Amino acid sequence: MRAGTVQDTIAAIATPPGEGAIGIVRMSGPGAVAIAERVVQSTRRLSQVPSHSLVHGKVVDEGGRVLDEALVAVMRAPRTYTGEDVVEIHCHGSPVVLQQVLARLLQEGARPAEPGEFTKRAFLNGKLDLAQAEAVIDLVRAKSPKGAQIAAMQLEGRLSARVSAQREEILDLLAHLQAVIDYPEEGLVDVDPGEMKRRLERLVDEIDQLLAGADAGRIYRDGIRLAIVGRPNVGKSSLLNALLGEERAIVTPIAGTTRDVIEERALLGGIPFTLADTAGVRATDDPVEAIGVERTRQAVAGADLVLIVLDGSEALAPEDLEVAELVRQAGAGARVLVAVNKCDLPRVLEQAAVERLAGPWPVVWVSAVTGEGLARLEETAAAQVLGQGGAPSAILVTRARHRGALAAARRALEDAGETIARGLPLDLVSVDLQEALEALGQVTGESVSEEVVARIFAQFCVGK
Amino acid sequence: MSERFDVIVVGAGHAGAEAALAAARLGMRTLALTLSLRGVASMPCNPSIGGPAKGQLVREIDALGGEMALNIDATCMQLRTLNTSKGPAVQTLRAQADRFAYSERMRRVLERQPRLELRQGTVSELLVERGRVLGVATKEGQRYFAPAVILTTGTYMNARVHIGEVNFESGPRGEKTTNRLSASLRDHGFELVRFKTGTPARVRRDSIAYEKLEPLAGDPDPEGFSFMTGKIRRPQALCWITYTNSRTHEIIHANMHRAAMYSGAITGPGPRYCPSIEAKLKMFPDKERHQVFIEPEGWDSEEMYLAGVSTSLPREVQDQFLRTIPGLENVEILRYGYAIEYDALVPTQIDASLMTKSVVGLFTAGQVNGTTGYEEAAAQGIVAGINAARFVRGEEPLILDRSQAYIGVLIDDLVTKGTNEPYRMLTSRAEYRLLLRHDNADKRLTPIGRQIGLVTDERYRVFEERWSAVEAVRERLGASRVGCTEAVQEVLRRLGTQPLRPGQALTLAELLKRPEITWAKLVEVDPGLADVDEAISRQVEIEVKYEGYIAKQEEQVERFRRLEAKAIPDGLDYFAIPGLSREACEKLSMIRPRSIGQAARISGVSPADISVLLVYLHARGGRPQAKAVATRG
Ligand SMILES: Nc1nc2c(ncn2[C@@H]2O[C@H](COP(=O)(O)OP(=O)(O)OP(=O)(O)O)[C@@H](O)[C@H]2O)c(=O)[nH]1
Ligand SMILES: [Mg+2]
User: Fold this and answer.
1) Right CATH number for A222-386 from 3.40.50.300, 3.40.50.720, 3.40.50.150, 3.40.630.30?
2) CB under 8 Å, gap of 24 or more: what pairs does B526-534 form?
3) Model-wide pTM > 0.90
């Protein structure tokens, strides 16, 4: 046995639960073919068939009883996803059957794969580079279709492509600096410090854009933090329940029902949200309610998005304006939208009053009771966070490591600009440009650094 | 007839001379065999030494205790500092040599060196037994034996000169060549490549109309290359500048097909780093004129060198196109430009000590390893000489890394990446060049040279004095403060720099850090500094002014060293490592890197391969540290 290899064989159901007519159980490792041979009855011996062949057979239990009919794909190392022997059993996807097939493989010596373990093996066997492996792990862990989309995009290297272009630009600058230095007597045109500075600033701007996207990337994974605020009794808890589709928060006609912040996760329009229902805001002597208001203030401060709820069946109250003011103060940086609730009731609240309060914030008219306008509310909420038109075309930075590397590159580029501004010799700029190159190289996988190495050992438990 | 030595050096060019001197100075009984006794350290190309990156190499050779810097300082005709405004790291010296005097002096140094014998002889065969070198045999029938042999045969192996349609077997200056040696190397399993380079015509000194040229004078008060030289106070020669023009270009274009490089007589690409005028016209068709430097070859020489117009065009075309150039209307060519093809070793066959991987005791250095340039050759020469001696004595080799010296960059590039054209040193190849300055080469390498045994007591004393003086001045600058007095404010305003805020006090060092404050200006603030020697103050100024940048670069070096310190055990079987790409297996097996850092620099080895390798080594257990270079300073 080759030293240092993973020696056991892992197995897992590879298709998402409850979907499609075909379900796949996948196995990887040195014992994959042998185990499959014991489990599948076929006219051809699996250990004899050439690599990458598809064999028809029956999956049987230890008593020889047929569990399912299946197509079995046999793929031998190293030309497989994991770089090890891989066997896939394509069954007729009922979840029960898939579970039985998997159990059978485990019985014959495979062990259940941990989440992302196929990818881990692919990485360890040099089939994927770190960035790709990370993207796949994200894909595996993605909680939502959009999250999956981002991971897939990253896998295709869109972030890498963008960062590569930036590296190219820096290499260009360095090359010019170098040419003048290495051939001082050839009458080459000197680097113009002003021009160089402008190009550096452009690069910094581009990285800023990527870093702004990094926030959106986090949002895709952890959910948009949405705080629902408003004066008492406007229907905040009702809206939360409506959005969740279940009766989570207590709803009563009594103002001041909700005393503390309630958080719930929900998938709205394919994007994960963390919704926070809060206590109604009003001047109060009740100490418990006062604490609630303070918590509301904190929820607003920590939110990505704030939903101000107004009651369409009543005139605008001073408290509504107080709420708006609180959001402006505590929620600096967060985006805001306004929902005018209870639009199933006769309208009292004037459009003009709403507009005055909302200013640039978008307004949606809804009813928590009838569900009217809820879809638009979801859409508007997503658009508010992601920018117009959603994010599919944007490049999002989802890894903290990438984010750190981009930030380091940005700092180095700024330092380079500073060196030019101070009128120092241009060769000194190259120290910072090199630093920036190295940092960006960590995103594209063009440089091997100690951090990457450390990370390998932190993420994958090897060598024990 | 046979004789026994400790070290045999084949060739006495720039690499051979340094190699032989280093070995002999380290106590080895050394034989240097040269094709011709008049060809010691000859300069068949530009009669000049130094320039960006190359000047740094010369200083490094000097700091280790080599000869090149002393030799050029003693025989130069002109000295200039280049890149003065581009930054401290890329400032460098360039000298015009009296190439006859240069060669002559080097020959005398070799002849006078105890334990070193310089003899004429054409080596035709390497004597190798069971993977170990035994010695060499010459065409003349002698056999010499030694446990270490250093090949420094330059461009003489299987050399062929091309002038237009004519070509013939010849060394660079019409000397004999060493064809049989190529065959002998092949017999021993070495892979050779065919490289080419070229030179311009040499013209008669008094056939030039100097009144039409721009003169180029040396620096007024130049300092030499060697840390032992100090100021050079001798009359200096002038060089001259002129330019090609559209008529020149027309003639060349019309005859392009007749140039050996383009007619098919020579195949493969020419060297990018010193292109012929034909190549320059092809690559940069829009450039209206190209610079020509006219350089004297020696005080007593009739020959002038035309740098910038190297060519392999036929003779009559060379006559024609040169005469279109202002100042050269009536020029007389003494020797025509030519292209030369020669055999070189694929340098990935050697390791970082410059010993070949397949023949124990055989070292190679200089152009035979695929480099171009006298300085690159000499740099390898001194390392090969040192390591041959250390090999004979059973000691660990001297291996300089990329953060220690240009020499380290040069050798690491050669043995890790190889080269498919003659390799020239460039500052851009040195990623840590802010630390590899020509002003601090002694600080970096003289302690190492001392430990090895090449640095004399005298040199070491000079070194210690210089740096303790620098330290003393730095301390002084760090300790003395200027306060916000009327007199100080007055001076600062006059110097065009920000006056102090009320109550503020700055150290002189802090003041010197301001970009606009030069040493001269600092002396105005504190006239007490006027007594500091110029060489010392210049050093202090660099170290103080660029402290922050130097610190940043040192951090980069830290990161580099961490990967460099992850050792790869000798004799690792890469094909047994699961997951390594086939290409990586092949490359790693061939290069046999010492460390993960070096492995990562091999082309064709991806970061994914490196991850796999790291995981594998980690899983194998233990974290061996790279074998410490015995002489790390
Ligand atoms: N007709 C109608 N009534 C609604 C609507 N939304 C909420 N209500 C009623 O309004 C009252 C208050 O609703 P809650 O959801 O408890 O209001 P809240 O804003 O959470 O109140 P506090 O927790 O006290 O701040 C309840 O009686 C709800 O049934 C709506 O869209 N239409
Ligand atoms: Mg409530």
Assistant:
1) 3.40.50.300
2) B526/B480, B526/B482, B529/B473, B529/B476, B532/B473, B533/B469
3) no
